[in-house]
């Protein structure tokens, strides 16, 4: 077993941070922010919090969709991406917007617009 195949939590955190900076400069250009809220390297799971202008932005669901699909394909150690925008208020951290193709609580498909990036 090679030590190079297993990155430390700090190295993986840096990779995810660099991914967000490299792939989504438009978030910052539009007054938003993206930060790692939680990272579980062992489980391959990361939670990204979008803040600033992203909290009320109508296209934040598309941004989240792009983050999810790109991150798992570009960073092999990441298998699950959760994202939060702060929308929904209260202390419920499980609140997140729906994404095209996902099933809603009523088991109806949400075929929304695709991400432009």
From TrEMBL:
Signal sequence segment: none
Cross-referenced InterPro entries: FSCA_dom_sf, NIF_FeS_clus_asmbl_NifU_C
UniProt record, GO biological process: iron-sulfur cluster assembly
Residue ranges, annotated region (Disordered): 81-117
The organism's place on the tree of life at top rank: Archaea
One Pfam assignment: NifU
GO molecular function: iron ion binding; iron-sulfur cluster binding
Domain NIF system FeS cluster assembly NifU C-terminal: 25-81
UniProt protein name: NifU family protein
Organism the protein comes from: Halocatena salina
């Amino acid at each position: 077993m090679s030590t190079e195949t297993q990155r430390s939590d700090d190295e993986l955190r840096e990779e995810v941070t660099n991914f967000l900076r490299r792939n989504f400069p438009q978030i910052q250009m539009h007054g938003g922010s993206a930060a790692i809220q939680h990272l579980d390297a062992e489980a391959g799971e990361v939670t990204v919090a979008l803040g600033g202008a992203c909290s009320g932005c109508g296209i934040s669901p598309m941004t989240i969709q792009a983050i999810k699909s790109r991150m798992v394909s570009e960073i092999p150690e990441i298998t699950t991406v959760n994202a939060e925008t702060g929308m929904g208020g209260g202390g419920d951290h499980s609140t997140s917007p729906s994404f095209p193709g996902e099933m809603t609580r009523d088991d109806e498909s949400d075929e929304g617009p695709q991400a432009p990036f």
